[in-house]
Write a structure and sequence with these properties.
It is a single chain. By secondary structure, this protein is an alpha/beta fold. Among the domains are: 31 residues, no CATH class; 184 residues, 3-Layer(aba) Sandwich (Rossmann fold), CATH 3.40.50. The chain is 35% helix and 17% strand. It is built from 23 helices and 23 strands. The strands form 6 sheets. Strands 2-1-3-4-5-6 form a 6-stranded parallel sheet. The termini are far apart.
Length: 739
């Protein structure tokens, strides 16, 4: 490799000057030489694309909801591969057409939310989609069904995500009626090869002819060849990429954008691309890291693609859709050096991990190459939770990355997980503390999602016991074995997190989730000094202040609210607050995935010195069991057995190998599964978390060394059995002697 670049250097120095483009190309090779690999990494499989005259016509569709910024890279890449083999291929992005149509729905007042707002993604799920979105979307889908009928293809391919599964299933069923002979394929991250008799895509998997699990380029070519040769199957074909296979990403055909109108997109001068696939990390919460094995493209291959788009289409904005754009720091730096040397004036972004090896000089190279922002998976401000997630980074490294990003102009889009199963009150507050401490660094966006979701293709999902999770759902969500954290606790934290972000104050604008209904209907906070901002350090504090002595579910739920009150007081000073939880309001804001039969009213007053008064009341009703008389095992609430141990997707297999669950790589045996069902029955017969409780109390956080909590003035049934013990700036409670 070194000799190659030395030869190129000698050549360019000894010969007459070539055109400027050639000079820049040689200079680029010299610039990236210290960082780029000289050859493709080992153990990757080349995609064999052999051109021939074919008669089979392919149509690839992307249905909403998905990102509307750029033309979809996935179907553009697959279309290019098909064309390279000689198949006629066309793409239709119904997502962008629906997105633009939905602007009219909003303007006309037909809907009161933006379906493409990330905080409303639950509106695309099941019943919510069919009542709230489908009546407006159906005419557009019908229009394109009619257009497809006019020039019917032989094969139609769909990409299925969790957020477009309902539109996909609707359109496939309608196309089946109109074009019974067309072959229909489906792939994407929402497709899994579960153990029989469970389907890959849901109860409707038989509406497809082919279901693809894994990377699609090679499997698509195999399917098209079958159809071209007249091969017919009586049953749906479920094709899985070999578990250890990794496709070579270099030298694939450039994405086929010929059938897209770039002017329809939010960024008409932008595209998606990829530097790598997969992820070098194995975060315990993540499914995507197991979806495919990591490998990166050579920097020269990426540069060639971007340069072509830059000069031929005027593309100067690139969003790399990799799980991890900095999975190979040297290759990414080689790309940066190449862009700088070629003097391409582009702007680019991508998903990244915080990494202590990325120093200030590294950030300067990122900035000089046009990196305007990196999208970090911060996840938590607690080192304990980061370690449980297996994030492989320290709080100090993350804070340094954010400071260096500010210095060089590389902004930070940050993603957070609220309510990881091992997250305590303290851990949750550490996340808010981290945000406040770093609000004036490079952070420009904070995304909170909908709290921790338990995925079957994750290390947590494949070994829940390791993370204190019960092997049963409760009210449709996960719950810890000690019952101290459930979807209801997480919903409280999500609302607290949103309220905290709405009262974040920073030197530069930070975009946060737009939950406009919260200050309208859920809470009111008035600060004694609206302009006050206080700098804070991380602290240890015991948030167990109320002791109803009802049980771990209730005792933990009633104390969640103190995390918000204390962090607001520490950062903004004294205030008066009312905040409520209401099943009807919370369903509108958070959806059934998070909300349920929980009601609470909190009145809280605290002065600048830390003296406070509180009046809280709570009501929780355990959800009723829903049972199908035809199937005694069909009940879904309150407790429902959850078994991911026998999933056979590549992602599940990879996650299970790393998780090392007690049931081993083969999953639960029959006896273990039947015990799971028996435990479910016992839980439903013996546990009821319903409670009603009112608490009034006063206290003081005045002295940083003595957080004395006064005995409540009312409803002292539980607190009377406890006394506070103060040491090391942390309140501890011990039971009073009964003597």
């Amino acid at each position: 490799m070194d000799n190659f670049y030395k030869y190129k250097k000698q050549l360019v120095e000894s010969r007459p000057l070539e055109p400027d483009a050639d000079i820049k190309h040689i200079a680029m090779l010299q610039a990236i030489a210290p960082y780029a690999k000289g050859k493709v990494q080992r153990n990757v499989t080349n995609v064999d694309i052999s051109y021939a005259h074919r008669k089979t016509k392919l149509l690839l569709l992307l249905l909403p909801e998905w990102a509307p910024m750029f033309p979809p890279f996935n179907i553009a890449r697959l279309s290019a591969v098909a064309k390279g083999a000689g198949y006629e291929s066309t793409c239709i992005d119904l997502n962008i057409k629906a997105y633009n149509e939905a602007r009219k729905w909003i303007m006309k007042g037909l809907i009161d939310f933006d379906p493409w707002d990330g905080t409303r993604d639950w509106k695309w799920l099941a019943a919510d989609y069919h009542t709230g979105i489908h009546p407006h979307l159906e005419p557009l889908l019908r229009k394109y069904i009619e257009e497809i009928k006019l020039n019917p293809p032989d094969v139609i391919g769909f990409t299925m995500y969790y957020c477009n599964a309902e539109p996909v299933k609707y359109m496939v069923k309608e196309l089946r009626k109109e074009l019974p002979n067309v072959k229909i394929l489906v792939g994407g991250p929402n497709v899994r090869n579960n153990v029989d008799p469970h389907p890959w895509t849901g109860e409707d998997d038989n509406i497809f002819d082919y279901i693809i699990n894994g990377e699609g380029e090679m499997l698509l070519l195999n399917i098209l060849e079958e159809i071209e040769n007249g091969v017919v199957h009586e049953k749906v074909q479920k094709l899985a990429q070999p578990e250890e296979q990794r496709l070579n990403l270099n030298d694939l055909p450039r994405p086929d954008y010929s059938t897209f109108d770039f002017n329809e997109y939010v960024f008409p001068n932008g595209v998606n691309s990829e530097i790598s696939r997969g992820c070098t990390a194995k975060c315990t919460f993540c499914e995507e890291t197991h979806f495919w094995k990591y490998r990166q493209r050579l920097a020269t291959d990426v540069l060639s693609e971007i340069e072509t788009l830059y000069y031929e289409k005027g593309t100067d904005i690139v969003w790399f859709i990799d799980s991890l754009v900095n999975g190979n720091l040297n290759e990414l730096r080689a790309f940066c050096k190449g862009v700088i040397t070629k003097e391409m004036k582009i702007h680019w972004t991508g998903y990244a991990r915080c990494d202590g090896r990325m120093d200030l000089a590294y950030y300067q190279d990122l900035a000089d190459s046009g990196c305007t922002m990196l999208n970090y998976g911060i996840e938590s401000g607690s080192q304990k939770v980061l370690d449980d997630i297996d994030k492989g980074v320290t709080i100090a490294e993350m804070e340094q990355n954010l400071r260096d990003g500010k210095t060089t102009g590389v902004a930070a889009f940050t993603n957070w997980i609220v309510g990881f199963p091992t997250e305590s009150y303290q851990d949750f507050v550490d996340s808010m503390t981290f945000i406040w401490r770093n609000r004036n660094t490079s952070i420009t966006n904070i995304a909170a999602g909908f709290g921790f979701g338990l995925g079957m293709d994750t290390i947590v999902g494949q070994n829940p016991a390791k993370f204190n999770l019960l092997d049963h759902k409760y009210a449709g969500g996960w719950i810890t074995k000690d019952y101290r954290l459930s979807k209801f606790h997480v919903m409280v934290r999500m609302k607290i997190f949103a309220i905290f972000l709405q009262h974040l104050r920073s030197e530069n604008r930070i975009d946060v989730p737009q939950r406009h209904n919260l200050p309208k209907n859920h809470y009111k906070i008035v600060f004694n000094n609206p302009n006050l901002q206080k700098e804070i350090e991380y602290e240890n504090f015991d948030y167990n202040i109320i002791f109803p002595d009802i049980g771990p579910f209730a005792d933990s739920l009633v104390n969640e609210i103190f995390t918000m009150f204390r962090i607001l007081w520490r950062t903004r000073g004294g205030f008066t607050a009312t905040i409520k939880f209401d099943q009807e309001l919370d369903l509108i804001e958070f959806g059934e995935r998070n909300a349920g039969p929980y009601w609470a009213n909190h009145k809280f007053i605290i002065d600048d010195e830390g003296n406070w008064e509180a009046d809280f009341d709570y009501l929780f009703k355990q959800p009723e069991r829903i049972i199908n008389p035809q199937d005694p095992l069909s009940h879904k609430s309150p407790f429902f057995a959850q078994d991911y141990s026998r999933q056979t997707s590549n992602a599940s297999i990879r996650a299970r190998k790393l998780a090392k669950p007690a049931w081993g790589e083969g999953g639960r045996n029959h006896e273990e599964f039947m015990q799971l069902i028996a435990d479910e029955k016992e839980l439903n017969e013996t546990i009821d978390f319903s409670f009603k409780y009112n608490w009034q109390g006063t206290g003081s956080w005045k002295d940083a060394d003595k957080y004395i909590i006064a005995v409540p003035s009312k409803h002292t049934k539980s607190t009377a059995n406890y006394k506070p013990v103060v040491f090391d700036s942390v309140i501890k409670w011990e039971k009073k002697s009964t003597e």
